[in-house]
Amino acid sequence: MMPREDDLIARTPWPRGMQLGSLLLLHVVVGLSTAAAWLVLHDAPLSPLRIGLGAIATLLLPGYALSRVLIAVGRVQLAERLLLSLSLSLLLCMATMFFLNWLPTGISAYGWARALWLGTAVCCVLASVRSLLPIADAPLLLPTTVAPPVLRPRWYLPVQLLCAFLTIGLLLGTIVLGIRSAQQQPYPGFTQLWILPAPTDPTRFEIGIGNFEGTDVRYRLEVDYNDRAHAHWSQIVVRDTETVTTPLRLREPLARNEQLTVVLYRQDAPTQAYRQVRIWRNALQESDM
Length: 289
Hints:
Mean pLDDT: 77
Number of domains: 2
Largest sheet: 5 strands, antiparallel
Strand order of the largest sheet: 4-3-6-7-8
Oligomer: single chain
Low-confidence stretches: 1-12, 136-150, 283-289
């Protein structure tokens, strides 16, 4: 009776070079994951280095470290290891997202970077301990697809590599499309309204309107001095993403219990106050309506 291949592998000692190379590769994985997390936690500017390290630390390194825990070196081919790493990385990312969502702090870039780095580091430690054990003592946690090389056709490895590159291209394309759709996502428009006193003259003020509605808007502006009409602008056209300021002058400075009220109306709703701010001496209160 011929012995099975798994039995032959179990009685084979770890080659010294393979063991050292395996440990060195795990150290490289921890180093790259640490560098990617450091760039995120220190708010490094967005650059090709940060994007590349972030993609590797998210889509490859966590799954690779976990696959080294589940399946020892030499049990699977390179392309199979790569596909398994991508699959496990996606699984770990989703599991991390659900876990962080249950926490009171919720999901954040900092929390996600810390969680992925911690998971990768723990898996690398476990994989290092596993690589120090003899093959017979290292449990096989997942079934393998190892077959003798003579049973595999010549096109087996190229086809595996092609599938791996196609998978990576599909993932990268999905990420690019997701980023573009997020940047083009419509958002609710808003208008900023403020009034600021002049730094030297207590009778002068500046009124500002910032339009972030996504289109040009016509406004009407009214200013009340102690609930009495003081000034008004019947039509102010503010282009999208632009800011318009206009000066306002009083005859005398505001007394302690006196106030200025600035009310902004949109042209499409001329009777409904859209924004409103009030200012007292040494105090400012703002409310959106």
